Amino acid sequence: MKIKRWKMGELKPYLAMLVVQLIYSGLTLLSKAVFNRGMNTFVFIFYRQLIGAIILVPLAFILEKKRVVSVPLSFSTLCKIFVSSFFGVTLTLNMQAIALVYTSATLTAAIVNSLPASTFFFAVLLRMEKVNIRTKCGVTKIASVVVCLVGVATLAFYKGPQLRIAQYYNHKSPHHEDDFSSSKRWVLGSLVLFISVIIWSLWLVIQAQILKSYPAKLKFTSLQCLSSSIQSFCIAIAFERDIEQWKLGWDMKLLAVVYCGTLVTGIIYYLQAWAIQKRGPVFTAMWNPLSFLIATTGSIFLLGEPLLLGRSDLQCFRYYYFFFLNGKYFF
User: Fold this and answer.
1) How far is residue 246 CA from its own chain's centroid?
2) d(CA 291, CA 116)
3) How far, in Å, CA of 228 to CA of 187, rounded?
4) Which of 104, 236, 257, 295 has CB atoms 3.0–4.6 Å from 46's, for a disulfide?
5) Threshold 0.70, pTM exceeds
6) How far apart are the two ends of the chain, measured CA to CA in Å?
7) Which stretches make up the EamA domain (predicted)?
8) 275-303 burial by CB neighbour count: b if 16+ within 10 A, else e?
9) DSSP labels, 49-94
10) Distance from C-alpha of 305 to C-alpha of 21, rounded to nearest angstrom
C-alpha cells in the first residue's frame, strides 16, 4: 500500500480552509453574543463590511499593483462583482444575522453545513461537476445531497431532548427565551437561514466563474467588500434610524465588529477565493461542517445554550456521510 506524501504546496488549501472554519466559528459565537445584547443586525453587518473594505482596498492595490492581470477589469466584470456581492455577501449576511437572532448559534452552524450539498447541486447544474446516475458513485452523491436536505428539514422542525451543561452567559436579550419557546420564530429562522445557504452556495459557484475571467483574487475580494459595504449601509439606514444603535463603545460590540471586519471580511474572503481557484467551490464548501463542532462547543460553554441531543447526532451523521461519499474532493 502506497502512502501519499504531501508537499507544502498541496497542503496550503487544507490549511487555508482550516483557518477559515476556525474564524467562522468565532464569527457565529461573537455575533450571537452581541445580538443577545441588543445590537441591530443591519448596523452590525454594515460595520463589519466597512472595516473589511478599509483594510482590503488599499492592500489590494498595493500588493497587486505590479502583478499582470491577463484581462483588465471591464465594466461588465465590475457589474458582475457588484451583483454577486449583493446576493452572495450583503443579502446572505443579513439573512443569517436575522436567523441567528431567531434561533441559536448551534442551529445556525448546523444548517450552514448544508452548504456542501447545495453547492454540489449548483456545480452539477452549471456543468462544473459531473454525475453519472448509472454508476455507484453517482448514486451515492445524489443520496448524500438528499440526506443533507432531509437533515435540514429535521433540524428545523425537531429539537430533541435538551441537555444544559453550562450557564455562564447571562447577557441575554429580553426575547431570548421566547426565541427558544416560539416554534414559529424557530421555523422562520431556519427557513431564512436555509435560503441564505442556497444563495451562498450559488455565490461560491459564480465566484469560480468570475475568477476565471478576472484572476486578481485580492482586488476581486476588495471590490466585493467595497460593494457590500455600500449596499449594507443603504439597508441599515433604511431599517434603523435610531442614532444610539449606531454608536460603538469599548465593549463586546466593538470587539465583534473589529473581529468580523478584519478576520472574517478581510481575510476569509481572500482565502476562500484563493481556495476556490485552486480546488473548486465544492472543496471549499465541504469544510463547513467543521465549524459546527467548534460553534456547538462554544455555544454551550460560552453562551450557555442547551445541547439538543437529537440534532447533534443527526448533524454528525450528515457530516460523515457527505464527507466519505465525496472524499475525492479532499484527497
Assistant:
1) 24
2) 13
3) 28
4) 236
5) yes
6) 16
7) 13-146, 188-308
8) bbbebbbbbbbbbbbbbbbbbbebbbebb
9) HHHHHHHHHHHHHHHTSSSPPSS---HHHHHHHHHHHIIIIIIHHH
10) 21
In this structure, which amino acid lies at residue 41? T
Domain ranges across the chain: 15-61+73-329
Is 99 within 8 Å of 196 (Cβ atoms)?
Answer: yes
SS3 content of the chain, % helix, strand, coil (to 5): 75, 0, 25
Cα distance between residue 64 and residue 68, in whole Å: 8
For residue 235, the model assigns a pLDDT of 95
What does the alpha-carbon distance between residue 269 and residue 222 come to, in Å, rounded to a whole number?
9
Q: Which residue shows C-alpha cell 465590475?
A: 78
Is residue 113 within 8 Å of 319, Cβ to Cβ?
yes
**45 residue type, one letter:** I
Cβ contact 112:295 at 8 Å = no
β strands within the chain, DSSP E: 162-163, 307-308
Strand partners of residue 163: 307
**What letter represents residue 50's amino acid?**
L
The predicted pLDDT at position 270 comes to 77
> Do 311 and 110 touch, CB atoms closer than 8 A?
yes
Q: Which stretches of the chain drop beneath a pLDDT of 70?
A: 1-9, 65-71, 113, 128-129, 144, 148-149, 151-182, 282, 285, 288-289, 303-331
Nearest to 299 by CA among 311, 317, 283: 311
